[in-house]
Amino acid sequence: MVDLFYKIISSPIGKLQLVASNAGLRSVCLSLRGAESDVAIQKNDQHILLKTEKQLAEYFAGERKVFDIKLEMCGTVFQINAWRELLKIPFGETISYGEQAARLGDAKKSRAVGAANGRNPLMIIVPCHRVIGANGGLTGYASGLEIKEFLLDLEKSCV
C-alpha cells in the first residue's frame, strides 16, 4: 500500500486539498470534493505538498505560468493520455474538446475527452480549465464554471 499525505491550503478560489505520495502529486481539488484524505495522513511538511503550495501561490500571484511538480497520475490509459495532452496547452490559451480529441488521434472522441477531463484529479496543475466548447463558450468544469472563468481570466491578465 502506498502512503498518501495531504495538506489543505488557502487560495483565491477557496480551500484546496493537495494529496501526494512520495512518488508524486496525486490530486489538487477543492477541499469539499476531496476523497483521498480519507486514506491519507495530514502532513504539512511533505516535500511535494510544500512545493505544490509554493507554485500554486506563485500561479495565483501571476508569477508562474508552468508548473514543475512530479505527478503521479492515476486513471485509465485514455484518461492519462488526455491529461498529458492538457499539459501541452500553453498558459493563457484555450482549445476545444474536439481539438484535444484530434490531438489524441480521433476528433470524434470529444465527449470521451470531456469525460476524462471531468475526472482530472489535478485541477490547475493539469489545466483542464483551458478546454472550452467548440463555439468558444465555457462548458463543463468539475469545480464549477465560475472557477473555470476565474482561472481563464487570471491567465489572460498575466499574458
What does the model show?
The chain is of the alpha/beta class. The chain folds into two domains: 56 residues, no CATH class; 82 residues, Arc Repressor Mutant, subunit A, CATH 1.10.10.10. Helix content is 34%, strand content 14%. It has five helices and six strands. The strands form two sheets. Strands 3-2-1-4 form a four-stranded mixed β-sheet, covered by helices on one side. It has a two-stranded parallel sheet with strand order 5-6. A hairpin with a 6-residue loop joins strand 1 and strand 2. The longest helix is centred in the middle third of the chain and has 14 residues. The chain is globular. The protein starts with a strand and ends with a helix. The relative contact order is 0.15. The mean pLDDT is 92.
The CATH topology assignment of the largest domain is Arc Repressor Mutant, subunit A
Global geometry: globular
User: What's the helix-strand series?
Assistant: EEEEHHEHHEH
Distance between the termini: 42 Å
Domain unit count: 2
The CATH architecture designation of the largest domain is Orthogonal Bundle
Structural category: alpha/beta
| CATH class label of the largest domain | Mainly Alpha
Task: Give the spatial strand order of the biggest sheet.
Answer: 3-2-1-4
Helix content percent band: 25-40%
Oligomer: single chain
- Pick out the low-confidence regions: none
CATH superfamily of the largest domain: Winged helix-like DNA-binding domain superfamily/Winged helix DNA-binding domain
Total strand segments: 6
Supply the number of helical segments.
Answer: 5
Mean pLDDT: 92
The main sheet comes to: 4 strands, mixed
